[in-house]
Amino acid sequence: MSLDWLDAFLVSGTFGVVEIVGLGLLLHLQVGLTRIANFGVVGFWGLGLYTFGVLYVQVDWPFGEPWQFLFSALAASLAAALAGLVVAWLIADLDSDGALVGTLGFSAIVLILATTQDQLTGGALGLGGLGFPYDLGTTKANELLWLALMTALVGLILGYVWWVHRTPYGRLLIAIGSNEPLARSMGKHTTGAKLTLFAITCGLMGLLGAMHGVMVRFLDIGSLDVGITLAALAGLILGGTARVWGAVIGVLLTVGLFDIVIQFYVPLPQEWFTQAIPVLREAVFGALLVVVLLFRPQGLLGQMRRSKLIRAMHDG
Amino acid sequence: MDRPARLASTDEPAVDRDVAAQHVEGPTTSGHHNVVAESSGRSPRRPGRTTSILVAAAVGLVVLASLSDFVAKSLVIGATENAALVLAALGFALLYRLTGLLNVAYAETITLGGYFAVWLSSSLGWGFYAVVLPAGILAGLLSVGTYLAIFRVAKRRRVGDLEMIAMSFGLSIFLRHGLQFIFGYQVQFFDIAPPDTISVLGVGVPSFRLLALASVALLSILIYQFIQRTRYGLQIRALASNEGLAQASGVRPLTVTLLIWFVAGLAGGLAGAFYGVGSSVSPLLGSRQLLLVLLVVLVGGIWDLLGVVWVGVATGIALTAMTLQFGDGLYSSLVLIFAFLAVLKVRGRRLTAGTKV
Q1: Alpha helices in A6-40 (DSSP H)
Q2: pLDDT-derived band of residue B226, with 50, 70 and 90 as boundaries?
Q3: What residues form DSSP beta bridges with B197?
């Protein structure tokens, strides 16, 4: 089947949007439900990306694809999950200030290790040699299938988040976010719940990083800057931190607008796309965070239905 | 010491001062009330023994430096090269301890200090020493501007702690990238003659780094004296301890808060100028230092503002010593981040809670 009608950049742009939706959904569980300030999303994502890349390229695997990809991606997810567990243990009894420092510190450690361990990671020069675990004949076809697989994975994450909202575990996370000492006084094991939450969500962030590595086929320390965290956070906060669909709506309106609509459908001078548009994108995301939190902190979708019901019961 | 009546505000809502006075005269022996009580006439706290111990340790290090070349280099280069870190941490700590806000956008106050200094230097043709203070003042004014335009509005709208941090993160990103539209995308350098080198303990140090160190010492003393000894300092601590009670006692919150933001911005701006003249000025200038500043503030804040200064100095010396040993500054940063995170874990909630007044 000919894919000439399809713009390759549109595939990679859409892949980026879907990926940020996934990160935003996971961040929703951490920030929206449990109210743990994770400003180090890029650290967990980057750990997955680099663990996958290094294992995929540097290890002489005794078997071929797709096992090489599957083992590397599994190891990347486990590494990110373990890191999530350690970071959660570190910040479990800290307030938002401590959580900020702990998560930022972790992302800085990942960046430093990726830079200094250049024999493994390629350091500032980067590392190539990553590839798809299949071959459909053309790069565009491979990327399109990879986009479909990524969409399926993010769909599963959406399903998981939706499921968490309807389980006792999800209600415990909401209780921790609302009043942790109260939840603890009711006999709930809040620390265990937070550790479990971070292990699962950070492991999935690592898996998204591994998927990203396959798509870009290159490890670049430039990708470990604050951009990924900002995009996920801005989208989540615009859509609504407390709602399942908040990250989806918010990321479509932010990253989708810049990386797809402006990139492909707004006729701007080509030279703007090298510096002006990326810089403007980050500045707008930053401003958006300020404006939304000032004037509509609950985001476009508003509060949880549960909160609305409780308020309605109190009012009437 | 002034009496409460003399501290009375004219532009704040009227309050029942008798009731306030009863509060102030009430449980003042411990907790938040004692600072408010001080602001209304009680004697201020005395500095602890920790400072004396740290001064003794510093003297001991200087003696050791005269015996060992490695110690001398670590001490001199560490203290002078990282003086800007101490300045930045001092300003950040002032804001954090006294307003309770962990302002991520403080990184951009540092960056702007660097940009203002370069801009003043290139547009007016002035030397570095002439532009450093105006650059700090401009950064201080911008700091006040961000408070009035954003954080004051947020406080009035009762934005939560986590949201406040996210907002300051957003402001940081906005300023970091917005600056590039104003000052350009390119890294900027000071167009100045190479500075004189002065020998300290046998180690050559550029003169502007000594100026940075002198600024740190001067500003630390001034801020400490200001916070601990002056009427405004007492009002600042009273406001930080119990805002409602402080207002009821006649403290003018707006004036005092603006003062805090200005002094913090001034310190950040000076730090940015010193960072910039030491290397270059770029949009990432402040954000590259932010994590270290945060960690120094949290760990040093276990004691008081002087604790921040001492931990900042010790961090600078440790960074230099490890860089001399490992040959790579990134490894030094890695070790320090791990060490600070370990402290964060050991101290737990007491750390972040204790660093606020």
Answers
A1: 8-27
A2: confident
A3: B206
In chain B, residues with a C-beta closer than 8 Å to the C-beta of A91 are: 344
For residue A50, the SS3 value is helix
User: Which SS3 state, helix, strand or coil, does residue A316 take?
Assistant: coil
Q: What ipTM goes with this model? A: 0.88
Q: B4-354 has which CATH code?
A: 1.10.3470
Q: Does B330 touch chain A (CB under 8 A)?
A: yes
CA–CA dist B286, B275 (Å, integer): 9
CB A242 within 8 A of CB A33: yes
Is there a contact between B167 and A289 if contact means CB atoms under 8 Å apart? yes
Give the count of beta carbons closer than 10 Å to the beta carbon of residue B290.
21
Q: What is the pLDDT of residues A228-247, one digit of tens each?
A: 999 999 999 999 888 889 99
Token match 């029942």: residue?
B16
Is-contact A134 A70, C-beta < 8 A? no
In angstroms, the separation between the Cα of residue A260 and the nearest Cα of chain B is: 21
pLDDT tens figures, B27-54: 333 344 444 445 444 444 455 566 676 6
Interface of A with B in 166-225 (CB under 8 A): none
Tell me the two tokens of residue A208. 């998204």
The CA-based dihedral angle spanning residues B69, B70, B76, B80, taken in that order and rounded to the nearest 10 degrees: 150
Inter-chain residue contact A96 with B176, CB threshold 8 Å: no
Confidence of residue A312 (pLDDT cuts 50, 70, 90): low
**What residue has token string 């575990």?**
A169
CATH topology classification for A8-315 = ABC transporter involved in vitamin B12 uptake, BtuC (1.10.3470)
Interface of A with B in 17-56 (CB under 8 A): 31, 35, 37, 39
Closest chain A residue to B292 measured between Cα atoms?
A105
Residue ranges per domain, chain B? 4-354
Sign of the C-alpha dihedral computed for residues B178, B181, B184 and B185 taken in this order: positive
Query: Is the pLDDT confidence value at B68 over 70?
Result: yes
Is the pLDDT confidence value at A95 over 60? yes
Q: Which stretches does DSSP call E strand in chain A? A: none
A282/chain B closest Cα distance in angstroms: 7
The residue ranges of every structural domain in chain A are 8-315
- A96 with B330: Cβ contact below 8 A: no
End-to-end CA distance of chain B: 21
Residues 248-307 of chain B whose Cβ lies under 8 A from any Cβ of chain A = 287, 290-291, 294-295, 298
Check if the beta carbon of residue B135 is closer than 8 Å to that of residue B288: no
